Amino acid sequence: MKTHLNLPTTDLSQSVAFYGTLLGIKPLKVYHDYALFVSEDPGLELALSLAGTVKPGETTHYGLAVENVPAVENAVERLRSAGLVTDVQLDDVCCYARQTKVWTTDPDGRRWEIYTVLEETAVRDNDATQCCAGEQSDDSCCAA
Question: Which one, of 105, 27, 23, lies nearest residue 64 by Cα?
Fold first, then answer.
């Protein structure tokens, strides 16, 4: 089983480069108005469709769960080597789990995280406040 996402983009070539780096794979198909990435790990079919405008959700973010910290570190290196801006959070409590993650943003403003869960926790975040649901005003945890 695979998850299928179809994301609109205003610049297909920039988005193909971004998602190729994010996923660490090349697209299966690329046309002037469409691209398709197919990945077994994670099980994902990601379609990019050219659009005139894109309005990413203000409190929406996307994530890729990986097995361990070295996989997050590899993602950090891959993203930074491609010149992408990253925000690394080490050993951070968020969403009832202690996690290590890296954040980056696609060309249309969608926030993506690549993360690993180190352990489950009894609190939602470092301050035991409501992160991930948009109640926290800063970007310190589960940024949207």
Answer: 23
